[in-house]
Amino acid sequence: MKNFPRLAGRLLALLVVLAGLGLSSCKKDDTTTVLGDWTRGNAFAGVTRSGSVSFVINNVAYVGTGVDVNNVRYNDFYSYTPATGSWIKLTSMPAAARYNAVAFSAAGKGYVGTGYDGTNSLSDFWQFDPSVNTTTTVAGVTSTTLGSWKKVADLTSVAGGTARYGAVAASVGDVGYVGCGYDGNNQKDFYQYNPATDKWSALA
Asked: Are 96 and 117 contacting, i.e. CB atoms less than 8 angstroms apart?
């Protein structure tokens, strides 16, 4: 037992070192920087759904299409203004209700296309202009439709482009990009849309 004090001292020193490492580790975890912050906004004004699309123009978000739990598909659209937290119902897209479509914004307009209508994969594309509203009067009742839609070139107008759903889309500058998705087979092709010419072109 002569060596017990010496052994005890060594054990105590080891425990102090281990404790120090543990405290150092905790300190590093406690000072981890978290980027960004989530706050809850006002709930979507439309029917609950999935498979919807969205795009942003001038700090306003636009959300539409999708399918609900009863397999009802939609072509309606709403705008959301973060500054006020308000949702506004817009003019519905004058095309087949759908889900798993794509959307992007370019040159101040929104573009929505492809998707699945419950029977067929789709290739059509539509342009949304938030700056054009139409006021009509019927039987003395005046109503205003917010935003306007215009048909643009289908994805199938370019060689290799196919009707599909579950694709992805993005925009860079004033052009849009659409690719991947399912057309009976999973795809990895990509296409560029130029709003100035209303033309699609395949990317290498």
From this structure: yes
